[in-house]
Amino acid sequence: MTLAAHCLRPLLGALLLLFALNLTGCRSLIFGQVNERAEMIEGLRVTREQLRLQARATINPITGGIIDTANEIMEQTDDPDVRLAAIKWKATAVPLYRETLFANNPKFAVLDTLALSYQMMDYFENGQGSDDFKSYAPIAYDCTKEIADTIREYMDSVTTTGDPGKARFVMREWASEHPIMGSLESRESIYEDASEISMELDMSIGAAVDAVVTTMDDLNYKIDVLSAQLPSQARWEMEILAYENLGPIDPEGVAERVDALLLDSQATLNQAEKTMANIPEMLTQERIAIMQDLEAKLDRSITALQAERQVIMRDLAGERKIVMDEVALNRIALTEDLNEQLRSVEQLLSSERRALVEDAEVMRQNLVNESFDELYVILLMASVYFTVMVFVVLWILDRRVWNRRAPAA
Predict the structure, then answer these.
(1) Fewest CB within 10 A of the end CB: N or C in the chain?
(2) pTM of the shown model
């Protein structure tokens, strides 16, 4: 594979990235997913939009500082290994900082940028960067430390307490636990531990999984930054390929060859611009096709739901008829059972009434018999008393009256 093919690969990759970014932004407009929120962020004196703008505003100063420091190292050294390490550093660190600062969640963008700075400080102090940059590692370390200081100062200025020491401590500890092993591309992001970091910083879990879609302003600014840095990025990649494949080359000669290759690729860039100009029309047609497909699916869904509703209503009607039949049968059975119970009660009452009448008749006869017996006793006693009284009267008459009359005769 020729050197020109190696150089065109990053250009084509960048063009595909631009196309994907434009597609993402247009999709946000088509489906209405953009939801910019201006509420105050918990623990900060700024709104989400203000923090977002500040994060975006620091992209060029941070990446520019990295580029200047790498160029300074390249000017000061004649060591090809150090020059190659400096080129790789700016070719890798610039996209890393650009991606961290363009994160959807601005609060996590600032925290991740601070964590990246800490990781890079450790990388140049004790990691692979110390070996690659040799005696020039402190220069790169000072650059990343200055970036971390800038982020810390901004955090000091926007926090409500004025003391974001906890966030700095958490990011410092996390960076120590997740060092950059090997190349900078292997760097881990705090988003992998977003939930734990949110709870440790007393942030809501929703902040860790914020799904705010990239706004059009962010998208346009990201495209502008990427477009401005794309030639430099392509040039760095080609310089890396030249160093790795051809060995140390005079910088002026490399620059001339790079410029020639960039001129040769201008036709490709022009063709890409034409393709990108046709993207809005393509997206419009795609949107129309998607809407038509959605309408057709919606119609099919409504038809299926109506048919299902009819089936359910029929099933309900059948179930209702079965229930009503069962209720009617239960009512008939209950009526018959009640009638049977009523007849049993009537028979029981009738038998009890007859028994009561019979008992009353017996009691009446006994009462009459007892009354006659008592009357008989009374009459007997009266007869005895009358007889005794007769005898007593006769005796008295005999003794008093009849006996006195007898001598006189």
Answers:
(1) C
(2) 0.49
3 pLDDT more than 80:
no
| Alpha-carbon torsion (62, 64, 65, 69), positive or negative | positive
In angstroms, the Cα distances linking 256 to 84, 167, 260, 265 are 18, 47, 6, 14
Radius of gyration of the chain (CA): 56
What is the tens place of the pLDDT at every residue in 14-24?
Answer: 444 554 445 44
Closest by Cα among 128, 115, 124, 120 to 192: 115
pLDDT band at 35 (very low <50, low <70, confident <90, very high): very low
Nearest to 113 by CA among 160, 168, 37, 35: 168
Bin 247: left if φ > 0, else alpha if -120 < ψ < 50, else beta: left
In the chain the first and final C-alpha atoms are separated, in Å, by 201
CA distances, 126 to each of 113, 133, 136 (Å): 20, 11, 13
**Where do we find the tokens 């004025």?**
162
- Rounded Cα–Cα distance for residues 220 and 215 (Å): 9
The backbone region for 249, taken as left when phi is positive above 0, alpha when psi lies in -120 to 50, beta otherwise, is beta
pLDDT of residue 262: 59
